[in-house]
Amino acid sequence: MANDKDFFICRCEEVTLREIEEVIDEGYHTIDDVKRITRAGMGLCQGRSCGKVIARIISQKTGKPLEEVLQTGYRFPVRTEKLKALEEEGPSDAENN
Questions:
Q1: How far is 49 from 54, CA to CA, in rounded Å?
Q2: Taking the domains of the chain in order of start, what are their residue ranges?
Q3: Residue 34: pLDDT above 90?
Q4: For residue 58, how far is the Cα from the chain centroid?
Q5: Which of 15, 30, 56, 90 would staple 40 via disulfide (CB 3.0–4.6 Å)?
Q6: Would you state the pLDDT for residue 58?
Q7: What is the pLDDT, as a whole number, of residue 83?
Q8: Could you tell me the sign of the dihedral formed by the alpha carbons of 16, 36, 72, 41, in that order?
Q9: Prediction pTM value
Q10: Of 7-11, 27-31, 58-62, 85-89, which range is least confident?
């Protein structure tokens, strides 16, 4: 019989509640910390499905307010740029000195 802590919080990377709670107990108290150690939030959804749940778990386990735990910003996806666009900008200031 499976324990109630063995269900997936991050389905993309198959990270369980137990794994997340263990790293929080080890002293990792930010979403980025948990992400680095467990890979939770690094799957196809990029944390859109599990990020807020992980933040709630951190908040409950540490006593920190949820607003303090939630990420304030997200990285934008990298977008390709045509080299022609860079060429049209001209030389940079560093090249002019």
A1: 10
A2: 8-96
A3: yes
A4: 13
A5: 15
A6: 97
A7: 72
A8: negative
A9: 0.70
A10: 85-89
User: For residues 65-93, b (16+ Cβ closer than 10 Å) or e, as one string?
Assistant: eeeebebeeeeeeeeeeeeeeeeeeeeee
Domain 8-96 falls under CATH 1.10.10.1100: yes
* Count of Cβ atoms closer than 10 Å to residue 41 Cβ: 25
Residues in the chain: 97
Looking at the predicted structure, is the pLDDT value of residue 86 above 90?
no
Token pair of 10 as six digits: 């991050």
